[in-house]
Amino acid sequence: MGIISAIHFLLVFPMIIVPYSDTWVLPLVSSYLLCYVIAQRQQRMSSILIMGLGGILVALTYFIKPSAIVPVVAIILIELLGMLRALYLKQFKILIYSISAVTLMLLTMFVTVTYGQQQINKQDYIQIRKGDNMPPIHFISMGLSGDGGYNPKDNIEMAKRSAYEDKVTYSENILKQRLAKLGIFGYLKFLLHKHNKNTSDGTFAWLIEGHFIQSKLDKQDKSRFFKNLVYPKGKYVADFRYIAQWIWIFILGLMAFGFNYHHKLAQVLRLSIIGAFVYLLIFEGGRSRYLIQFLPVIFILATLSSSYTVNLFKRTFAWMRI
Questions:
Q1: Distance between CA atoms of 289 and 203, rounded to whole angstroms?
Q2: pTM (2 decimals)?
């Protein structure tokens, strides 16, 4: 059933077939969230090992897409609040379990990242020029240009500077100039515009960026319908955009109206989504493609909130059955 669902999902989410870090990281994000859920449902000391596995998965996620570990920050914050509550209520068994689980997750994550980085530094199969590293402030500065997304001019300026310190200095100066130009109210207006760009497109920027489909439509091709649906010159590409947008609105509606779902996992997922939105507002964004890495969180919360959303609408419109 899972394979069948994935195939059908391609009809509204073809970005899944694009070989890019946003999609490669999806199985890992889903897996470490699964580890957390298992550890929460089976609060036994043996289940702590699951969190250890989760830490390894988080480390692998970090190597592929560092921003995709935002849900881990949400997990840690919610667990810390849970520890304070357990301490206040003198629930020492729960307190010890939470401390042990979080500690093991962080420990295995740290060990895996350290070991992985050492192996990357030692390997000579791929030559890595450390001077070409982009400083984080570069992506913050770039996130204040245009719609908040990729800026080729900024990248060219980074390429001209070989020293890492020069890249930092240039990005700091550009960031200050852009903030001064916007002003307080201009900056707030820009953030609203950028958030809209980050979240409003249900196709996840399909065909908006990239030129990865160059094939022509062949009338004898058995997959002609799917290609007509998603290819740039496809006959039904406008229908695809329409359908995908309504499905995205439906998913957002399930989350928005399912606010009565108060489970601990729901708080982790909601905090993860808030963290994702804040991250994309600060760093490079401007495309809903950047939300792909957080889709496991969004889909899980939408699914778990669905029954609460349905009940809310049943109560709200109960008068129509009279």
A1: 8
A2: 0.88
